Structure formats: C-alpha cells, structure tokens
Amino acid sequence: MGEEKKIMLSGIQPSGDLHLGNYLGAIKNWADRVNDYDCYYFMADMHTITVRQDPKELRRRSLEMLAIYIACGLDPEKNTLFLQSHVPAHAQLGWVLDCYTMFGELTRMTQFKDKSEKHKDNINAGLFTYPSLMAADILLYQPHYVPVGEDQKQHVELCRNIANRFNNIYGDVFRVPEPFISKVGARIYGLTTPDSKMSKSIPQGCVFLMDEPNVIMKKFKRAITDSDTERCVRYDRENKPGVANLMNIYATITGKTFEEIEREFEGQGYGVFKPAVGEAVVDVLTPIREEAKRLIADKAYLNSVYREGAEKASYIANKTLRKVYKKIGFYQIDKK
Question: Which residue, 117, 131, 144, 293, is most buried by CB atoms nearer than 10 A?
Fold first, then answer.
C-alpha cells in the first residue's frame, strides 16, 4: 500500500475577478500538485465581507471562480473544491481561535493596517480578527503545507503561533503547517505598477483571466519597461523592475530560465519582447477562458461540485472541531 499523501490547502477570496497574478502565483501551481498531495481549495467568501460587497456580484464571482478553478486544471474528482460559507465549522472554530489569539498579534498584521487605511469608514471587528478565521480555515483540515505568496506568509506564521499555543495547553490537537512558497511566479507585479503586485484595483495593469485576446495584447504592449537606451532584455529586479516582471511572467509560462530568455531576445528590444510575452499569455489563457465560459453556463454541474466538495470538507473539518470542543470543555451530547 502506498504512503498516505500529505495534505495541502489554500483559498482565494471571490472579492474580485481572478487575474494573471492569481493564476501564475497560485492556481497553476495548485493544479500541478494533484498527484503529490491531497488538496483542498476553497473560495473564501466569508473573508470578503470585511469590506462591503454587492451581494449579486459576490454570488456571481463565487460561481465563476469555481468554473475558472476547474478550467485551470483543478479536477473536482481529484481535488476538494468548496465554498467557505458552506462549511459552518470555519466560523465555529474561528470563534474559538479568537479566544487564543492575542490582541497584540492582530495589531501587527500588515493587511489590517492597509485595509483600515483604505476603508476608514468601515473598520469593523471582522477586519481586525479575520486572521483567526484564516487560522481556522487552515487548521480544520490538518494540512502539512499552505501554498501562499510572500505577502501572506505573515498569516501562516500567526496560524502556526496559534496552533502551538493551543497544543501547548491541550496536547497534540493541530498539525502545525508549513508555508509553501514557489520560487518562480510566486509574485506577479502590475504591468503599469512593477513595484507592486498585480491588483484588480488597477485594471489597466491587470490581466484578468476572462479578458479577450485583443485586450490582453493591448495591456502588454502598454506595459512599463524602463528608460534603458539599449532597451536590453535583462533580469535586474532593482534597476529594471518592469522588464524583470515581464521576464518572470514569460519564465513561469514557458518554463524557460532568465538566461534563456535573455538569449532569445538578445538585440531585439522591448518592441519585440512585450508582444511575445503577451502572445504567450494569450495562448495559455484562451483555452481557460473558453472552458470557463462553458462551465459557467452549466450551473447545475457547478452546484453539484460545490455540494460534494462541502460534504467532503465538512466531514474532515467536523472531526477536528469535535476534538477541539472536547479539549476545551464544551459539553458533548451523547449519540443515540
């Protein structure tokens, strides 16, 4: 009998349309790991409401995101795909972990500071305590690894602190997970803002997975490079961030090294390089977009995937929750 697979879990908020950064930094890598890990991937809809959402749009994105996940290669027969709000154990364990998370830890979270600055009219309790819910999202499934970008590493570290604190009091309850960060493609920057990660809030520099080919090509042709008079394709993150970002995108899609890319475009300049990167992206995203469109039209199928995913996720999550409830002293009703 083969060795039991290690567990991997991650999720993305359906707070905006998925973009190239989500795909290259996360989803593409998820699909590549299905044979090596027992994978749980979810749409973190509960996290979205720390910022006010249009209910109709949130429902649309929650369904569309599942379709895109599947179109990107996340086979629901091989991966557990589910919606966070369909598994009540997330909220239940989230409250318990609130009581084992220190105020000082939450005040140091950079995303709370950033979102508080952007949404000064809505600095709610959920915005402050959502790292505890994120810890619950993770610990419920006892994963070995959590694939994250560099900007999310702080959340995994807090999750580990909470898990260790709980285990030190009650024994071996939670597996303490490790962050899993890809070396290539882990952080994709905006085409017009190569010093900050690609974001839906700056649409002109953000390539959305459902963009049409002509829109994608236009965005790449307008991508910021640098003022280097030689217009040399060379990887230099500090001095040529725009070019470095385009090279990272091209490398992640083609599998080529930076040295190979430099040789491929030697002496050709940015006028050749930028459209070439755009074409590589179009080649990858076109079949994803077409398959996602087909799946979005089949709501009954997507509902069945969500239903089955929630059932499997709930079975695993509830086992952890029952153990936690017993450890902290919540009275359990005997089964008949």
Answer: 131
